[in-house]
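Usage

Read records sequentially. Each one opens with the input sequence:
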Amino acid sequence: MELLPFSLAELCGREALTPDSFMTPGPHVLHDPGLDLTETLFTGFFPRIHDRGLEAPVWLDGYVRTYIERDVHQVAGIGDMDPDGHPKSPTCGHLKIPHPASLIFQ
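and closes with the structure output:
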């Protein structure tokens, strides 16, 4: 299942225009959505932000950390991260062997 962000019509609480809407003759009136363009662009269209009235920057930061960083780690083959967000390095006795990927995440 693919979940898409809200459309502008959904955020405004009106029906979306479809390609068929433009096939019928007559004027097509687009009503002012009643939204601030700058705020809408910086808030985004993610349903969770609007459904729960969340602060967009905080939610988006969590989204990036949860999904994007996880995917990057999987693709790069990086294992667990330490509390500072650096790849954990294997140890040999008391010596810590640096992980080559740790240079990327400094």
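Summary fields computed downstream for this record:
- The helical segments are 8-12, 37-43, 47-52, 56-76.
- Residues 8-17+28-79 form one domain.
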